[in-house]
Amino acid sequence: MADFTFISGQSYKKSDIYKICHVPTDKQKGNWNTGYTQWNGDWFIFCNIGTAGRTGHDYANRFENELLHWYGKTASHVDQDSIKSLLSRQNKVHVFYRTDDRSPFKYAGEASPHSHKRTSPVQITWSFQKNLTQTKHANSALNETPDLPMSIYNKQDQSFPEELSGGTTYPEGAIKQIYVNAFERNAKAVSDCKAHYGTSCVVCGFDFGKIYGELGQGYIHVHHLVQLADISKEYKVDPIKDLRPVCPNCHSMLHQRRPPLSIEELKKIIGLN
Length: 273
Fold this sequence. Notes:
This protein has 273 residues and is of the alpha+beta class. 20% of the residues lie in helices and 25% in strands. It has helices at residues 14-21, 81-87, 132-141, 187-197, 208-212, 248-254, 263-269; strands spanning 11-12, 36-39, 42-48, 62-64, 67-71, 93-98, 105-117, 123-129, 170-172, 175-177, 181-183, 221-224, 235-237, 243-246.
């Protein structure tokens, strides 16, 4: 098995990867452009986040809580030899991602299967082992800002990478680096949303302050009614019209479908509508 070295958080063109992996010209492209391929025993996954691929396929690949929820090819299933190999833990799996179909791929890291679903296309959730100190040092040398897990951000300003947190309107859209490229949230819009709706979940009514006391006081996720990936540009967010406070459980359930469920649909599912 080869020992290919990539730096987490660094961007690579396919030509860079071919060079590092010593892929001869006649072996380039082809399977390398189909989403995932195996080379010298290692697997290489190339996925789009929040954007369709050049083939027109638009899977709901997404990062949540440092895990990547990833979909295989359209007809993929767990009984295929390729998927069995990906899930076997016998081979290294290198994951690269990008948020538009023209940019180089960013190396997310070496992945291990966390869980999977017997669907078609198959869905695999990947976890990553990254040495953040080494990554930070390497990226500093390249004058880049390192990617960091979402857990380091202030607990009152968390949301999913697909989401913008946001009548007064506020400009949003500045790119910043978290675990994936996401659009910068305007803290004032988040604050105004909480001030208007409170910090109880608008779906199920859960209040962190009532259950956890001072520790949970004021904590809540903020859900954007329109998905970030469907906007993809700077725009004006109205914190009253566009945002809603939701608990993490309901937030996750809203995003079990693409496009997300509406607040009313989720209420109906749990018998509150």
